[in-house]
Amino acid sequence: VQLQASGGGLVQAGDSLRLSCAASGRTFSPDAMAWFRQAPGKEREFVGALRRSMRTTYYAGSVKGRFTISRDNAKNTVYLQMNNLKPEDTAVYYCAVRLNWIVEYSSARHYNYWGQGTLVTVSS
C-alpha cells in the first residue's frame, strides 16, 4: 500500500488548507486513518483520526474545532481540512493508516503505512 500526501504550502495565519492522502496499491480497507505532524525539533504528534467503520473522528485538543478529517471511498482518499491556521500549526504533516482500529489510535507506532509527508508553513 502506498500513501501519497499532498496539499501543503505556505499560508498566512487565519487561512485554510486542505491536505489529501491518496492510497494506492493492494486493495484493503483500513479502519484507522490518521494524520500526524512533526514540527522542526519536535516529536511527531497526533492531529486526528477517523474510524472508518463507525464514521467517527477524533482530534487533538490543539486542533479540535479547526481541523476536520473526511474520506472519499470512491477516490480512496482521506482529507484534512485545516481552517483558521496558526503559526504553531507549521509542520510536516503525515497521513497514516492501519487495518484495524485500536484504542491507542493517537500513537504513531501503531500505524503500518505512512505517506511521505507534506509541509505546511503558516506565517504570522
Folded structure, characterized:
The protein is mainly β. Helices cover 0% and strands 51% of the residues. The model has no long low-confidence stretch (mean pLDDT 94).
Record the SSE blueprint:
Layout: E1 2-6, E2 9-12, E3 17-24, E4 32-38, E5 45-51, E6 56-59, E7 67-72, E8 77-82, E9 91-98, E10 113-114, E11 118-123
Parallel strand pairs: 2-11
Antiparallel strand pairs: 1-3, 3-8, 4-5, 4-9, 5-6, 7-8, 9-10, 9-11
List keywords for this structure.
124 residues; mainly beta; 7-stranded mixed beta sheet; 4-stranded antiparallel beta sheet; 11 strands; globular
Summarize the structure.
The chain has 124 residues and is mainly beta. It has no helices and 11 strands.
Tell me roughly what share of residues is in helical segments.
Answer: under 10%
Rg value: 13 Å
Count of DSSP helices?
0
Order of helices and strands: EEEEEEEEEEE
Give the percentage of residues in beta strands.
over 45%
- Number of E-type strands: 11
What's the end-to-end separation, in Å? 37 Å
Give the overall shape, derived from the CA principal axes: globular
The secondary-structure class comes to: mainly beta
Uncertain runs with pLDDT below 50, 5 residues or more?
A: none
Give a short account of the largest sheet.
Answer: 7 strands, mixed
Summarize model confidence as the mean pLDDT. Answer: 94
The oligomerization state is: single chain
